[in-house]
Structure formats: C-alpha cells, structure tokens
Automatic annotation (TrEMBL):
This is N-acetyltransferase domain-containing protein. The keyword Acyltransferase applies. Residues 4-151 form the N-acetyltransferase domain. One of its GO terms (molecular function) is acyltransferase activity, transferring groups other than amino-acyl groups. Keywords: Acyltransferase, Transferase. The keyword Acyltransferase applies.
Amino acid sequence: MPSISTRSANATDAETVARFIHALLDELSGGKAPTPDVVRQSAETVLADAGVVAVIASADDEPVGIMVLNECTAIYAGGRFGYISELYVRPGMRSKGIAPHLLEVASQESRARGWKRLEVGAPGQPKWKRTLDFYLRNGFEEVGPRLCRII
C-alpha cells in the first residue's frame, strides 16, 4: 500500500481539482464531459465557496484522488449535513485504500462541523454497481435514487 496523505485544496489548486473532476465526468458520461476549460472555471468558483471543502489525496507525494464535500441543510436531516458531490481516484490507484481514506476525512470534517449525517450519490445502476458496493461496504445505506432537473 502506498503512503497516503491528504490536504485541503484551495483556489491555487483549481487546475489539479479540475483535472480530476474532468476525468470523473468523462468516465461517468462515456467521454461526453464538458471541456477541461469549463470544468476548471467551475472548480475555481466552487473552491471559493466557504461551504465547500475539497481534499486532494496523494500517494507518495503524487496527487491520486479528489473529494469535494459540501455543507447542505435539510429538515429531514435535522439541519446541516455533509454531501460528497465528487469523489474520484485515478483508475490505476483504485483498491489501494485511497477512497476509504477520503471517506474518513469526510467523517472527521463532519464531526468537526457538528454534522450528524453524510450523504453521497452513487452513479446509475447496474453499470456502476462496484461504486455502490464500495459505499455500502464503507458504512453508507441506500435511501433511494437521487434525481436531477437541469435548469
């Protein structure tokens, strides 16, 4: 197993964050992700938001993954809670403990902020069953599909 470290990302990390998120979107969409420039612009905006925590995971001092955690609020959740909007590990580094490490960082951040709930959306099934199984193995429970309407 590689030596895994994490650090919070900031505005100067927008290019690195965007590169990972573009790879995630490209993988999920079958090669139909927005352009890297569009993703970079979004990364700059998101990283400037105080309600967002982005974390870069490195293995042996090389960036290998990213997680973006957002503060949300809902009555059903009892107030504020965390939502993992993006989590990506480079394909060649998967199954090496990096994603569980990022989930532990999310749990620590949740406790520090007083959140009692952490949510994540899994991609469509059954194609991404391995992703769903990963989250289930790591303490998440299925609560139903998440839907989206583009405005």
